[in-house]
Structure to design on (232 residues):
């Protein structure tokens, strides 16, 4: 069964510090991997989409990496800000219909809290 | 502005009273989907639609109905709501079907439903 596991489940860091969130997946055949940011009570917003051939992709202070061989991805946040407090969700797409009913498998998210 | 609009944002209802949550997108997207989000479980797909008049079950379809009579609208219907359907609901759309193609999904702002 296709699965996406995220760690840690929750994380508290001080403002200005860096952090790294992890995503391991068993989705096959792999199509792409997405990271979403979800503010409390709001809908998820896309941060990055990475395909098989991409190892690193940046969006401002967010940098995502992908190792398709080990089926691992990470999201690195640099110089954290209070507005980074949110849940971060990893979503992996399967080519065809190998994931959920429509090829998407969701992780449960990492809840990140930035403290002043 | 390109967006996915859900209504209502908040709803409190009683067990057994039929309700509809509306979802509309203005981006001419083919693919639309409904999710529920519960603490510790992450986003779980309820139903999805690849195009007009084409709908299919997701992972947790019991107790829900959908329709896709027009490309822009994808309402979620609870014929006889029960307390275990208390949750945060999100509608999403993507340009193409299936959504595993390398395009991001756009999420609505969410509907917080409480069934008493």
């Amino acid at each position: 069964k296709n699965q996406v596991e995220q760690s840690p489940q929750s994380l508290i860091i001080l403002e200005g510090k860096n952090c790294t969130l992890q995503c391991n997946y068993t989705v096959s055949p792999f199509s792409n991997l997405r990271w979403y940011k979800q503010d409390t009570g709001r809908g998820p917003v896309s941060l990055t989409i990475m395909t098989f051939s991409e190892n690193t992709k940046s969006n401002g202070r967010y940098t995502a990496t992908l190792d398709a061989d080990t089926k691992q991805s990470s999201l690195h946040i640099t110089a954290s800000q209070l507005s980074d407090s949110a849940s971060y969700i990893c979503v992996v797409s399967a080519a065809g219909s190998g994931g959920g009913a429509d090829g998407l498998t969701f992780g449960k998210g990492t809840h990140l809290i930035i403290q002043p | 502005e390109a967006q996915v609009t859900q209504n209502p944002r908040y709803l409190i209802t009683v067990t057994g009273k039929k309700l509809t949550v509306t979802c509309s997108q203005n981006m001419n997207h083919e693919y639309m989907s409904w999710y529920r989000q519960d603490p510790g479980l992450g986003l779980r797909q309820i139903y999805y639609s690849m195009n007009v008049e084409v709908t299919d079950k997701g992972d947790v379809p019991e107790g829900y109905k959908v329709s896709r009579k027009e490309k822009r609208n994808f309402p979620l219907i609870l014929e006889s709501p029960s307390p275990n359907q208390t949750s945060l609901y999100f509608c999403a759309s993507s340009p193409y079907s299936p959504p595993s193609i390398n395009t991001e999904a756009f999420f609505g702002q969410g509907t917080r439903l409480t069934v008493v």
Observations:
- Chain A touches chain B through 27 residues (CB under 8 Å).
- Residues 56 and 65 of chain A are 4 Å apart (CA to CA).
- The first strand of chain A starts at residue 4 and ends at 7.
